[in-house]
Amino acid sequence: MSKTNNSLTQLALQKFKKNFWGVLSLWLIVIIGLISVLAYIIAPDNSQNANQMHLSIHSKSPGFKVKMLEIPSQINKEQSFFNRIFYGVKNTNTEIPITNFSVKDDKLMYAEYASDGLLGVEKEIDLKLFPNKEYKDFINEKTFLFGTDKYGRDYLSRILIGSRISFFIGFIAVLISLLIGISMGSIAGYYGGKIDAFIMWIINVTWSIPTLLLVIAITLALGKGFWQVFIAVGLTMWVEVARVVRGQIISVKEMQYVTAARALGFKDYRIIVKHILPNIMGPLIVISAANFAAAILIESGLSFLGIGAQPPMASWGAMIKDHYNYIILGKPYLAMIPGLCIMILVMAFMLIGNSLRDALDVKN
């Protein structure tokens, strides 16, 4: 039996490797996953949520450059290595965009950046604020590859860090939906009768409620926040999994290997977990890939409505909400960039699902 399973698995893997779009989508998902995990290492602005605001340079075009003066702070900001990687640097320094600077009598004179050719306010600070009065290391030219958003934050950094929510919500939501859906579907399909009728009633009631409306209701009940959205999306996606599992178990529970397992005295739990579920993994894998894409779209919609991830947390859906009016103001890229990111990630998961369906289809 194990040799047969291995050979079927190898055959499915070989078929998947021959699918160009499936392999390309897999690598794309892996790359986006690595970017989301290492976002604070890659992002030019590695502060928490990439939330360094500079209103004087808001809505600048991609490739915009400006001199940035960083005034060191005396506040203690000790952080562990892993805390910096996963949550960003607690940046207490003050960053000021400037056009020019000079030194006079132990004073650093600088002119703040002003757009539209206006003259910025001229100010001065004491050189004692800098370690050993060395100010040069604290003045650098900064390039904003994707420009800045309407609050003057680095847009590339916000895009990179925003990938975390869109990427990880797929995993959390699908995990929750699988745990609930497999449990409910297995019990309904295996035992049948009144148990099946009761579970199907719950499934039909849940199915009849519009997904977005149900997510909004759960989110409002649990509260607005990062984890609440993940749980809310997961609690609305188990129905499809349960229906698929129930149908598959009904079709295989009378097969010979299940009857043999019952005759040997195995418990129902072992028969379901050890014998039935491994033989219906194909449809589950396909529906999980589709649910990944659906979860990303639902989260983006919630963030656009303002009940998803809350500011200043970066989210692709929230970024579209903040900048959709810029489409008619001559800077459509502010809304199009996060929109394209969502489209690419969703398409990758859908193509993975189609490729897995073809690879696991024994008829082809």
Instruction: Provide the helix percentage.
Output: 55-70%
Rg, Å, rounded: 27 Å
In CATH's first tier, which class of the largest domain applies?
Mainly Alpha
Number of domains: 2
- Look up the CATH topology of the largest domain: MetI-like fold
Distance between the termini: 22 Å
Low-confidence parts: none
SSE series: HHHEHEEEEHHHHHHHHHH
Task: Give the beta-strand count.
Answer: 5
Class by SSE composition = alpha+beta
* Overall 3D form: elongated
Give the name of the CATH superfamily of the largest domain. Answer: MetI-like
CATH-defined architecture of the largest domain: Orthogonal Bundle
Mean pLDDT over all positions: 87
Largest sheet: 5 strands, antiparallel
List the helices and strands and how they pair.
Blueprint: H1 2-17, H2 20-37, H3 39-42, E1 64-71, H4 81-87, E2 94-104, E3 107-112, E4 122-126, E5 139-144, H5 155-191, H6 193-208, H7 211-222, H8 226-236, H9 238-252, H10 256-263, H11 268-276, H12 281-305, H13 316-323, H14 333-360
Antiparallel strand pairs: 1-2, 1-5, 2-3, 3-4
State the gist of this model:
The chain is of the alpha+beta class. It is built from 14 helices and five strands. A five-stranded antiparallel β-sheet has the order 4-3-2-1-5, with no helix packed on it.
